[in-house]
Amino acid sequence: MERRELVRWLVATAGLHALDSLAPTDLLALGREVHGSQDPALRALSPHAERTVAAAAERIIPGADVTAFIDKMLADWHTPTERERFLAGLPDLDTRCRARVGRDFIDCTAADQIAVLTALDDEVTALRASSGSAANQHWFAMLKYLTVYGWCTSEPGMRSLGLYPMAGRYDGCAPL
């Protein structure tokens, strides 16, 4: 599977189709605003949660580097209820890894991390098949969505997708 095909699939499964309604310039502006205005201090994630999110996002899209983006989105864009649901779900990664190999998620091998994330993804997929949009309420669906959204709106992501630099207006006969 090619990276672009994977991203398209992730976008489709993560519910990013809502971004299709945004014009490319609006999407770029939103991405620049969110990526460019990140505070260096964490506002929604604890240090352990930050490391967990970074490791999980790396397994979802290698090189995504979206942890600060996710922290910003949780702090500024999501409702307190959504933020709490996400934060309450993160320890599930540690619980599953401890049951599997006796270590926290961030201390596991890549193979163990991928196995746990795949199991969670399978659960969300099954939930989506049985309950439709209810799957979007699952904390892992939020993590996946935020990872893909953060990568797709970052400059490296947009470059990889062939969307950057964005075509601008061209006035060939404009007066000087």
Structure, explained:
The protein is mainly alpha-helical. The chain has one domain. Helices cover 64% and strands 0% of the residues. It is built from nine helices and no strands. The chain has helices at 3-14, 24-36, 47-60, 67-76, 80-89, 91-101, 110-131, 139-152, 155-160. The longest helix has 22 residues, at 110-131. It is elongated, with a radius of gyration of 18 Å. The N and C termini lie far apart (49 Å). The mean pLDDT is 84.
Q: What distinguishing features does this structure have?
A:
176 residues; 64% helix; elongated; mainly alpha; 0% strand
Kindly summarize this structure in a few lines.
The protein has helices at 3-14, 24-36, 47-60, 67-76, 80-89, 91-101, 110-131, 139-152, 155-160.
Assign the structural class, choosing from mainly alpha, mainly beta, alpha/beta, alpha+beta, or little secondary structure: mainly alpha
The total strand number stands at 0
**Helix count?**
9
Element order, helices and strands? HHHHHHHHH
Tally of individual domains: 1
The largest β sheet comes out as: none
Radius of gyration: 18 Å
Strand content: under 5%
Q: Oligomeric status of the shown chains?
A: single chain
Helix content: 55-70%
Large-scale geometry: elongated
Average residue pLDDT: 84
Termini, distance in Å? 49 Å
Instruction: List the uncertain runs.
Output: none
